[in-house]
Amino acid sequence: MDNLLLTAAQMRALEQAAIDSGVVTGLELMERAGTGAVDAILDEWPDLAAAPGRAVVLCGPGNNGGDGFVVARVLVGRGWDVEVFLYGDAEKLPPDARVNYERWREVGEVQTLTGRDMDGRGYVPDLTIDAIFGTGLSRTLSWELCDAVKQYAWTFTQGTRVVALDIPSGLSAESGRRIPCADPPEDRLAFPTVSPAAALAIDLTLAFHAPKIGHYLGDAPADCGRLRVVDIGLNGGATDVETARLVCGPFEGVAKASGHKYDHGHAIVLTGGMGLTGAARLAARGALRIGAGLVTCVAPGPAMMECAVQLTAVMLRRCDDAAALADLLEDDRINALCLGPGMGLSDRAGDLIDAALSARRHIALDADALTILAERDDPFAMLHHDCVLTPHGGEFASLFPDIAERLNVPAMEGPAYSKVDATRDAADRAGCTVLFKGMDTVIADEKGNARINAAVYDRAAPWLATAGAGDVLAGIIAGLLARGLSPLDAASSAAWLHVEAARAFGPGLIAEDLPEMLPQVLAALER
Ligand SMILES: NC(=O)C1=CN([C@@H]2O[C@H](COP(=O)(O)OP(=O)(O)OC[C@H]3O[C@@H](n4cnc5c(N)ncnc54)[C@H](OP(=O)(O)O)[C@@H]3O)[C@@H](O)[C@H]2O)[C@@H](O)CC1
Ligand SMILES: [K+]
Fold first, then answer.
1. 490: domain range?
2. How far apart are CA 205 and CA 210, in angstroms?
3. Which bound ligand lies closest to the C-alpha atom of 197?
4. Would you call the peptide bond into 415 cis, given omega within 30 degrees of 0 as the criterion?
5. CB 33 less than 6 A from any atom of ligand 1
6. Given ligand 1 and candidates 208, 234, 235, 413, which is best to mutate, with the most ligand atoms within 8 Å of its CB?
7. Which of 21, 48, 147, 518 has its Cα between 20 and 30 A from that of 432?
8. Pair 515, 282: CB distance under 8 Å
9. Residues 424 and 295 in one domain
């Protein structure tokens, strides 16, 4: 289950296609955006609807600024007192924005958005509208703009509701990251520049038509405040360019159909040595709770007793070396493996990984398995398209150093390289599905499909940052692979369920709780 997210270029293409087809003009879309924004704001804060107040609208040089002029005019029409500032040259506004600039000029003044005078208005507005940049931001922001917005924000953000039109100004609609501000002049070096997106402390972001990919990545969830979508009457989201989708639920196959236990697969989880089996046992519990028919922990001799006293429904087999694992995998009912949690970095662990990869099963590779691969000359030589790699940021940088470097350099111009691009490139190189963890988990496969499982906005799950949570995720993936989901669907569903389990438990969560919350999460899906 998923929802389409758009790049800035796709949004422009949709808009252009609608305009070219003659069903709507750009001016009508801008009117709908501005009117829809005011409706959404007054719906969000009924006190503002009940008593019109004072607003400040900060407009920029493109169509986002045009939306701002519409908002200003509509607010005045509803009894508001509005001041408008423009960053840029009114003569150079694009045509639709220019029309709305002129319409606004019939209603009120336009002041210049500079550092001067921004901090001395003599009142605190009830509402501030950020309409400086939208999806067209394409390069480093000038110091003068950043300074002006900072001065305004420092004086007024306490007490004013701040709303960003489409996306907070300064954020890339592709990467969700802040595009840097230019360095200050020599005599202002002591005054740090701050991105308008951060300085304004935005309470609400109103995305027009659909969320953009950047709304769910990088700095955006912290900078956007709440995120709402404003319908501007554009049809659908179909584009001919591959894009990313937001994971909004588990994929087909997670709900359990009737059948014998072997119809639901047999997952095995390789443990570490004595004293190091906890991570694998957590993973195994996740695999079993998500419905794998059978789950077996596979442990070396010295760790057998430790596992035996802890496991009941999860089965246990001894396996001392790669040859023993290869023998075990002669049983073709074993259809999925989980490798890595607590496995250690020994040569034995490396040999076990090779034996597993040679046996061509569905395999979730996590933690130590990723570290072992990253140390190899060719980490991806033995991977195949039934594998899922689940790196966090550090593991991703070890496995794909050049891709991580490209992702981490500040984006000076658009469209910015995003975590979606990076994960897609990583999956292409690895030849399998990659799940790049974070609050903005991105899942991509080797065919170019990409999805975002966002634990942000009203799905925030801060309690997931706890030891062992990643091991459970790897186990849930292995369980879903055993049940026959494709690597992309297994990884996406697992990421979604993992966040839902954390949210269902709430504060105080520890990793052991995650598998135990899955029945409740699954039951809620059936209601
Ligand atoms: N698509 C749709 O369906 C609809 C879109 N709508 C709205 O339009 C918005 C997109 O409009 P947009 O393309 O004009 O982009 P926007 O962000 O306003 O500004 C770009 C301008 O800024 C300039 N510029 C760029 N970077 C800069 C910098 N660092 N410093 C200084 N200047 C910089 C750039 O100049 P240039 O690069 O051309 O030199 C250009 O002039 C979208 O977010 C939504 O709000 C709605 O009306 C409803 C329908
Ligand atoms: K904006």
1. 257-526
2. 12
3. 2
4. yes
5. yes
6. 208
7. 518
8. yes
9. yes
Strands laid side by side in the 387-389 sheet: 2-4, 244-247, 450-454, 440-444, 433-436, 387-389, 362-365, 334-339, 266-270, 294-299, 315-318
Closest residue by Cα to atom 19, ligand 1, is: 62
Site of tokens 């975002």: 452
Number of domains in the chain: 2
Residue 252 lies in a domain: no
pLDDT greater at residue 157 or residue 479:
479
Residue type, 227: L
Same domain? For 188 and 269 the reply is no
How much is the mean pLDDT over the chain? 94
Q: Which atom of ligand 1 is nearest to the CA of 135?
A: 43
Q: What tokens does 348 get?
A: 């034995």
Q: Is the pLDDT of residue 1 over 60?
A: no
CATH number at residue 156: 3.40.50.10260
Ligand 1 neighbour 134 (Cβ under 6 A)? yes
Say if 251 falls within a structural domain.
no
**Top-confidence residue, 97 or 262:** 97
DSSP codes, 119-157: T--SS--SEEEEES-STT--BPBPHHHHHHHHHHHHHHT
Same domain as 425, residue 333: yes
| Confidence at 240, pLDDT banded by 50, 70, 90 | low
DSSP designation for 181? B
Q: Which residue has the higher pLDDT, 193 or 71?
A: 71
Ligand 2 center to residue 303 CA distance, Å? 57
Q: Looking at ligand 1, which atom is closest to the CA of residue 165?
A: 45
Look at ligand 1, atom 24, and give the residue with the nearest C-alpha. 137
Same domain, 282 and 155: no
Q: 308, 316 in Cβ contact below 8 A?
A: yes
Cα 168 to Cα 224: distance, rounded to the nearest angstrom:
6
Q: Which pLDDT score, from 0 to 100, does residue 119 have? A: 61
CATH label of the domain that carries residue 472: 3.40.1190.20
For ligand 2, an ion, list residues with CB under 5 A.
Answer: 130, 164-165, 169
- C-beta 355 within 6 A of ligand 1: no
